[in-house]
Fold this protein.
Amino acid sequence: MRIRTVDAFADHPYTGNPAAVVLLDSGPWPEDLRLQRFALEMNLSETAYARPASGNTEGDREAEADWELRWFTPGTEVDLCGHATLATAHVLHTTGAADGRIRFRTRSGVLSAEAHGSGEITLDFPTSTLTAIGTPGEVATALGAKVAAAYDTSPGVGDLLIELRDEQAVREVVPDLAALARLSGRAVIVTAAAADPAGSGYDYVSRVFAPAVGIPEDPVTGSAHTALAPLWSARLGREALTGFQASARTGVVRTLLRGDRTELTGSAVTVLDAELLVAL
């Protein structure tokens, strides 16, 4: 069994967000505990497991899928993950295991990925619903930053979306991770408008902290952009935008808002292709 590590939302190695990808044969899933332990062994933001889909219902387009896909952080299985989906689609295409549009059956319904001649891949994800809320005092304290606005993204990704005053404030946040881990929800997203869109080439900036699920800071978070896209598209008056995630590794996600669906486009690079010596 092969294991591949892919840098997602990156056009060159050692940037973007690394994900481990394991392609399984048809048949039952390995025991959940083994999947979780291997994800902990890899110790990346996510490890993705994919197997050929079975049980499609004829005529039920919502149930039709080519592959089944699951995502595990080092601490838990999650409902939605963008960069590991991009990484999985990249592996399927580059190894010849799939071509054209790929449909994944997941905990969040059927998601699709389509490769382009440029090498980029576009994901079709559900758009998150944003609900403006009062700023939780413990969040402002944990971030150590002045909060301009706060939004709940439940149902959906289940993150807390926090707007800060400007790009510099986002880049300079040094959160109290232990305090963030005590909050409900998956992660805290911080964001602001880009300081120089014309010069930088991106419209907004973000960072994502998810210590509650074993990820102190996620390098590039595709799923978070299903909440960032509607926020900044409404603010800037454009459906197509470019987001920059200002982690140490950095990454770029191009978003296209289409009502209740959001397209996420980015590149990926395989940096490791190895053989597992211990079967799952």
